[in-house]
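Dear U.,

For the methods section draft, I wanted the exact inputs and outputs in one place so we can describe them consistently. I've listed the two proteins in the order they'll appear in the manuscript figures. Please don't edit the token lines directly; just add comments below if something needs changing.

First protein:
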Amino acid sequence: MLEVQHISKSFFRKTALEDVSMTVREGEIFGLLGPNGAGKTTLIRIINKIIDADRGVVRINGDLMTQKHLSMVGYLPEERGLYKSMTVEDHALFLGQLRGLSKRDVKMQLDYWLEKFTIGDWKKKRIEELSKGMAQKVQFICTVLHEPKILILDEPLSGFDPVNVELIKQELIEMRAKGKLIILSTHNMKSVEEICDRVALIDHSKKILEGTVSEIRESRKTGEIAIKFRGSMIAFVNALWTNFELVDKEILADDRFIARLKTRGETNFDDLLRAMMGQVRIEAVWEVLPSMQDIFIDLVTPKTEGTHA
């Protein structure tokens, strides 16, 4: 278990983090979210002992985190740092030995990962010969060579095409199943919904939200209902009367639609179904939950005077 307790940090009187606390457990993918400049990377660097906090502590399994704990950490920074003139194998040997691995162990691990990613012919290629996505994959491999118990990944999905995004996501899911503790800093909200167990949102140096993805989406719902039906949109709208407000509609075919509605007063599913009986043919009805993308934008977008979150 990794605990961040009341971390604060300033640079030249500018606050980067203010009293931030959170807990991440083994076997968990924890999403660290926030707009650019919110303080996420500063927090990650404090956890990695690259910089010191002004106040607060980081604990591993209850013990104050020290340099000795870094051997169990794999860190993929947002700034990519591969030596372009080195081959993939030489780079892995260099970084693996810095982590305390023998040459033999590095080569075994590198062969395993290259084979797993079906990129064995890259071993003797120079980094400068690789595309951005290929180099990103090599840096991911170098991050996990020493089989860390804790993975801290800062924007690990940037630079990847959709196929490789899915590949990395599946690797993270497998690592979670093996009991790894994973902190994932990303702007990819779709991936957050798909693989993160819990998330924290940092904005303007403060943690403003923490919880499971499902809890957060449930807590931010607005009472919208979606209905998929076959029939006439005019008949559908006429049947709504004043009990429901039509928020949006999607045309699937000439006579098939998805409509999003907002309830008014005490109306509910049953009222909607009764209103539609005999007017259109209902295929599905469901409650609309906001996406993490919608929630992120709503919480970090500055509100103009007179509006509320």
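Second protein (the one for the lower panel):
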Amino acid sequence: MNTKYWIAFSSIEQLDSVFVQRLYNYFGDIERAYNVSEREIEQIEGVSINKAEEFITQRKKIEPDKLFEEVEKRGISVLTFDDTKYPYMLSQIYNPPMVLYYKGDLFGCNLEKTVAFVGSRRASTNGKDSVKNIISDFKNTDICIVSGLAEGIDAISHRSAIDNNLKTIGVIASGFDFSYPASNRDLYEKLENGAGAVVTEYYPTFEPIKFRFPQRNRIVTGLSYGTVVGEAAIKSGALISANLTLEQGRELMCIPGSINNKNTEGIFKLLKNGATMVTSGEDVLNTLGWEVKQTNQKVLFENTCNANQEYLPLLDIISIEPRGFDEIQSMTGMETEELLTTLTMMEVEGLIEHTEGDRYKKL
């Protein structure tokens, strides 16, 4: 079985996917590439001498069979570059990962309708809401949302996908021995247990070191037919993802935001340079040339139309911009207990959402 040799290569931290790919392309067989002699490796054009020497040194310490057993013991699935199931879009980028470690139902995701959502870890409420609104337009379709399982736009993208019955893939910047950030552990569990999949190119023991996050981004965009940027400062990881999207020949889309928000400066720069502006799921579909069937598209609208009559005055007051409880009470004149009960019922029925700071907004 050749998988153990792919794993053995990936367990050497000093190597990158380009080095392994060059050896594999030269020999056409991963076992042959792994067992290359020092003399043979010197004949391969484009191979770094330093990395070749490092590989030969580290190889002496490695037992491929043992590494394979360690991965299996952790319940991790492995997809290698030579596998016919390897994602086509990812195989087309300059430096595709030679190994994908994953947990969850990767092939339950539609890899032919993947769109990435990226953005600031410190996203504003407006930025998060914009992403949620766009993803909600895809509800109950076969579109798959790809992101990086970080805080901010990443997390809200995954959560919105799950809330709207969409599959979602989270690409992480470490091995599976780590769950980073800790605040997203519940997301890891949901993706691993039916909501999609968690994917990484890193051997299980590799830590989430800073330089691995930009490397991870090429997989997020590489898996996707297009990338939607939610919020991005002038210097941010989201802009790295935007550049990767263009380099990979994929569609780059941006959600406009407030001109007073530092996290939208990068957005407007991208828009000025030709990125497509999107404000709805339909814009994304049009950009990518996709047609999808939405089975429950009108449910929320019907719920609003058929709402209990006592809700209507509140629905007129509560807009998509959050309003505080005191403000709503002042405008309605309702008693505290009555208003709390009504707002709770409206939230249960999917008409409004309770947000941070004791505020409510219309869905």
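Candidate sentences for the figure legend, describing the second protein: Residues 222 and 290 are 18 Å apart (CA to CA). The two ends are 52 Å apart (CA to CA).

Thanks,
Y.
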